[in-house]
């Protein structure tokens, strides 16, 4: 999988964070489709197709993340996020990192 399109480690980390947001987004869609409020209803074909599509999309984004993680570590991502809050504040990764902050 091609990850050399990013010239800098910062670019790779920002792409990783964007991918992470996409994965979370598609998981939330999956959960809404897969587990409707009415547990007695069966999933129709159209909904099942959407569920399958979500899973394929998640898998694609996770594959991209795995490729990037060959060149960066979570420690490097954490450090980058902490040092660049203005670049990272919109990403879920940053928000979860700061859930325990008292500020």
Helices and strands in order:
Blueprint: H1 9-34, H2 45-68, H3 74-83, H4 85-88, H5 92-97
Helix pairs in contact: 1-2
Summarize the structure.
The termini are far apart. Helices cover 68% and strands 0% of the residues. It contains five helices and no strands.
Explain what this protein looks like in three dimensions.
The chain has one domain. The chain has 103 residues and is mostly helical. Helices cover 68% and strands 0% of the residues. It is built from 5 helices and no strands. It starts with 8 loop residues before the first helix and ends in a 6-residue tail after the last helix. The longest helix is centred in the first third of the chain and has 26 residues. It is elongated.
Annotation keywords:
103 residues; mainly alpha; 5 helices
Largest sheet: none
User: SSE string, helix = H, strand = E?
Assistant: HHHHH
Mean pLDDT: 84
Based on DSSP secondary structure assignment, what is the total number of beta strands?
0
Structural class: mainly alpha
Strand content: under 5%
The count of domains is: 1
Shape by Cα distribution: elongated
């Amino acid at each position: 999988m091609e990850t050399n399109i990013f010239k800098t480690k910062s670019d790779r980390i920002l792409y990783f964070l964007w991918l992470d947001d996409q994965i979370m987004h598609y998981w939330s869609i999956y959960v809404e489709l897969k587990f409707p409020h009415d547990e007695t209803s069966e999933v129709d074909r159209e909904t099942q197709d959407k569920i399958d599509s979500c899973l394929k999309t998640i898998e694609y984004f996770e594959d991209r993340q795995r490729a990037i993680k060959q060149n960066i570590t979570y420690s490097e991502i954490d450090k980058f996020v902490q040092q660049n809050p203005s670049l990272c504040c919109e990403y879920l990764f940053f928000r979860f990192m700061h859930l325990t902050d008292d500020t």
